[in-house]
Amino acid sequence: MIALTVMIHIAGIIGLIAYLKARGLRIVGRRNYIVMTRVLVVTTLGIFLVHTIEIWIWAALYFLLGEFETMERSLYFSTVTFTTLGYGDITLPERWQLLSSLEAVNGIILFGVSTAFVFGVIRKLFEAVDIIRSEPGHL
Q1: What string of pLDDT tens digits covers the 139 residues of the chain?
Q2: Does the pTM exceed 0.85?
Q3: Domain extent listing, the chain
Q4: What is the architecture of the domain spanning 2-134?
Q5: Please, are residues 91 and 97 in contact by the beta-carbon 8 Å criterion?
C-alpha cells in the first residue's frame, strides 16, 4: 500500500510539472502576481487532489478488510490517520493497528514530499521574477 501511494504521489507531481510546463506561463509585467497566484493555486489543488486519492485508497483497504460498516466511516478514519491528526475516536482492532500506524507514517512522509515540491515551485517563481527585474529596462 505504501509503494502504491508513493507511486501515485510521484505520478501526481510529475503530472503537475508537465501541466505547468505545458502551460508555459510567462511571468512578465504587472501581471506577475496574478500568474504566480494561479500557479500556486493549481499546484496546491493538484497536491490536494493527490492526497485525497491516497486517503481514499487507504479507506478502501480498510473497508475491503471489513473493518468499517460504511465507506464514510472508513474514509473518516483514513483521513484522520493519514494526516496524523489521530482523534482516537475510532480505532482498529489490535490485529490491524500496525497498518494504521503505517498509514500515518506514509501520510507524514508524503506531506513532506508535497511541502518540498510546493517550496520548489515557489522558488522557481521567485527566480523568474528576479530575472525579469534584473533585465535592462525593468524596474
Answers
A1: 999 999 999 999 999 999 988 886 665 555 677 888 889 999 999 999 999 999 999 999 999 999 999 999 999 999 999 999 988 899 899 999 999 999 999 999 999 999 999 999 999 888 877 765 655 555 4
A2: yes
A3: 2-134
A4: Orthogonal Bundle (1.10)
A5: yes
